């Protein structure tokens, strides 16, 4: 799928990173997919925390590095937070992650995937966000719509 729009946003701190997540929550609908990439500490989980807060999720949102998938069902829309950091492509394929973005066996929701560059296949529609640490400006988010 070719992306039609690219947007670059500089984020001075953690608060602005969360704010970006909150703003994204206003645009996303059931079966939306966010593909997040960036080095450790670039702000992937922080962005998802802002997203969750805007959805009305009260539970603390933490990186599912060891649990792989955290499901937050209490908000306006369910949030499925997936972290692929510790996996290889074969392991990922066996997870059948398409069930989340297609709403198969789970309620339709927003699927946010950290380390998405490890996915062996992509959903048909998604928003890709690459987060980078900029020594002078804080963080830089490049969003591909």
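-> sequence recovered:
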């Amino acid at each position: 799928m070719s992306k039609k729009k690219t947007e670059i946003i500089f984020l001075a701190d953690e608060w602005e990173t969360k704010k970006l997540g909150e703003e994204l929550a206003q645009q996303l609908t059931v079966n939306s997919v966010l593909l997040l990439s960036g080095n450790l500490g670039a702000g992937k989980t922080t962005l998802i925390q802002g997203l969750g807060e805007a959805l009305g999720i009260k539970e603390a949102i933490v990186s599912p590095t060891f649990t792989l998938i955290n499901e937050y069902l209490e908000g306006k829309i369910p949030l499925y937070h997936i972290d692929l950091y510790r996996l290889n492509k074969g392991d990922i394929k066996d997870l059948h992650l398409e069930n989340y973005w297609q709403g198969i066996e789970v309620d339709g929701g927003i699927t946010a995937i950290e380390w998405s560059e490890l996915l062996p296949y992509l959903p048909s529609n998604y928003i890709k966000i690459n987060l980078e640490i900029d020594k002078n400006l804080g963080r830089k988010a490049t969003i591909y719509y």
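The first strand starts at residue 6 and ends at 11.
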